[in-house]
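Hi Q.,

Before the meeting this afternoon, I wanted you to have the fe (iii) ion prediction in hand. No need to reply - just skim if you have a minute. The sequence and ligand are here:
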Amino acid sequence: MMLKQLFDRVSSTYTYLLVSRPGGEAIIIDPVKEHLAQYLRLIEELNVKLVHAIDTHTHADHITALGDLRDAVHCTTLMGEQTQAHCVSQRLSDGERVRADGIALRAIYTPGHTDESFSFVLDADTSPAVFTGDALLIRGSGRTDFQGGDARRSWDSIVNRLFRLPDATIVYPAHDYRGVCSSSIGEEKRWNPRIAWRTEEEYARIMNSLALPYPQMMDVAVPANTACGQPDRL
Ligand code: FE
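Predicted structure with the ligand bound:
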């Protein structure tokens, strides 16, 4: 299997293209609408068939490419079962698997950043990985002050779900604002300043006092993303 990590400079979003083998199938996670042409070119160059496009959650900072990819290559579009995006072709429940030849992702419900956030575990023998969306970031975690966010649910998702994965599991988040591409569960347990050596109480206090600015794109991105990035189709 091959993993391509792609980056959107405007929103600091990471998009992941998982490719089974040349000539095989692929899955994309958290694609950004503006980069549709880049994705289509890449899957053509790699000679793969894109079978699934997944959003970890309803993004507030960029518009998804899910709908455009579905139109272009007839892939399925997937989100967690709590999503408001009724345009998706399949809603995943906790523990469900997403497969493309030779690749299996396990969906795990990790609410807190939003009430419909999922993470996706790649159970590979050699390098197990988890795509955490904004549930767990590198030395941070996704804000919990809108879209059904909840600091205590975020703590529970991180500590009681993601941190139960093996320490060697590579963490691939949906964003990084400092240019770091990946982490690991063991590293985040030890060094994430919001979580390591802290209690749930302390975490909730930190998250509830972040006082972050209102996201510039939110009023456009959230309605657009509940329409799979195609608001004009509503
Ligand atoms: Fe987010």
